Amino acid sequence: MVKKFITAWGADPVELAAHPEIVEHLARFDLLSVFFNLDSFIPRIKSLNPNCKIIGYRDIMGANENLEDWSEINQHEDWFLHDLNGERLVNKNWGWCCLDIRNQEVRDHQVNYMRNKLVLGFDGVFTDDVWTHFWRNQWTVDESLVPEIPEWHDEMRSFLQYIKRQLGNNLVIANTPNDADYPYDCDGKAEERFPYAWPVLEEINALNVISGAGKYYLAWPRLWENWTEQEFLYSFGCFLLGVNGNNAHYGTDLWASQMGYYSQMDYDFGGARGACYVVEGDLYGRDFDNYKVLVNLSTTQAYSVEVEGVTYNIPAHSGVIVPWEAPPKKSLVKPVLVGLGLLELTAVIAKAGT
């Protein structure tokens, strides 16, 4: 079955206590990201699903007055980044103040906070806002007043590496668009708006490479307002085209339609029969032992395809998951080889595999 994950950021502990069915719903997922204030629910979730990994949320470059450790952070002006007028940089979308991740005291504070929370039963941390570079257009002041920090990428890498070293075997998963190095500096990454943020084939390939390296890859559509079944089948289908290994997860948020769960997530797909392939045009497929997955990557053109005598019409930006009787896998019966050289041996094996 597919590994599935869900975020429940901002879930109210009081509400969860009053609605145990929500806790039971969260326990059906393989990986769960929550705020650290839900620690009291960890024993219940683990009793329902001992294999569920629960990771706590922490923004590693942003802080505001809503944080429980704000009073300590706020005492250290040198922990913050400032504009050219000396005022703290404030994110224009989310309202947090930007921390200077180059500052070792900032790094130590963040790691100590995480470490103190992990002893409550969490399996790791979800590190948010792991920027690939320092975007100067994200602040409440004009870009001309924002300093340039060309070393940001390398500093963020060293920060991620520091967090991972300090937290040891605990999971460290970065929410980042970076596919090149950040996922390998920790335990993996989350990709928001998968597969919509980048060219779709690039995202599918990144998923395949990163998860194939054993790293976590959280394919995360985040389609709260447009979470239709068609969009689910499209995004889930794209995930299935690229999934490679046991640490790739697909999922969205508790606030999404159907509370982030569709029954197809629990289909027994069996093993992949190979990589994805072009069926025709922008229609891609991938064969598993028990299902054939077809995904239409076109935004305009529909396709029809026949599988085992049944015709499936696949609209633009959609997909289908078709149960099928997969052909038997070719088995290589090793012949008895006596006195053959390397070239002859290679030829016999190649012939036996046809």
Report on the structure:
- The chain is an alpha/beta fold and 354 residues long.
- It has one domain (3-268): TIM Barrel (Alpha-Beta Barrel), CATH 3.20.20.
- The protein is 27% helix and 22% strand.
- Strands 1-2-3-6-7-8-9-10 form an 8-stranded parallel barrel. It has a 4-stranded antiparallel sheet with strand order 11-12-13-16, covered by helices on one side. It has a two-stranded antiparallel ribbon with strand order 4-5.
- The two termini are 30 Å apart.
Q: Could you name the key traits of this structure?
A:
single chain, 354 residues, alpha/beta, TIM Barrel, eight-stranded parallel barrel, 16 strands, 27% helix, 22% strand, globular
Largest sheet: 8 strands, parallel, barrel
Fourth-level CATH superfamily: Aldolase class I
CATH class descriptor: Alpha Beta
Overall pLDDT level: 92
Task: Map the helices and strands.
Layout: E1 3-7, H1 13-18, H2 20-26, E2 31-34, H3 42-48, E3 53-59, E4 62-63, H4 70-73, E5 97-98, H5 104-118, E6 124-128, H6 152-167, E7 171-175, H7 182-185, E8 188-192, H8 200-212, E9 216-220, H9 229-242, E10 248-253, E11 277-280, E12 283-287, E13 291-296, E14 303-307, E15 310-314, E16 318-323, H10 342-352
Parallel strand pairs: 1-2, 1-10, 2-3, 3-6, 6-7, 7-8, 8-9, 9-10
Antiparallel strand pairs: 4-5, 11-12, 12-13, 13-16, 14-15
Helix pairs in contact: 5-6, 8-9
